[in-house]
Write a structure and sequence with these properties.
Blueprint: E1 5-11, E2 14-19, E3 22-23, E4 25-31, E5 37-43, H1 55-68, H2 71-84, E6 93-97, H3 98-111
Antiparallel strand pairs: 1-2, 1-6, 2-3, 4-5
Amino acid sequence: MTEHLYKGFLDDGNPIVTMDGQPLFCRRTVAMANGRRDAVLFSAPAKLDWSKGGPNALSLALAILSHETSPDEAGRRFRHFADRVITQLPIYTWELSSAAVLGWLQMDREDYPLR
């Protein structure tokens, strides 16, 4: 799996999130009419708020997890990831590596196995 570096910072008061220096995009797997599952990209919302929780923190959690794990696991764990990691990030600037995300995923899998 590719190692990524996620960064968040405020630019003139506006939150910006990048992955490897580029705007963060989210992979979402959708079920197609023929029964196959295909990944599509969609842009993360322009306004991400990692410190206050709510829908923008959830979107950020899903965007990051969608690059680090399967779509199914990302969809099942993003709320917990938002509560435990995203809302705890520093307000003005932060960095999060793939290794840190994968470490959190491993702990969460042990504490909260999916059924």
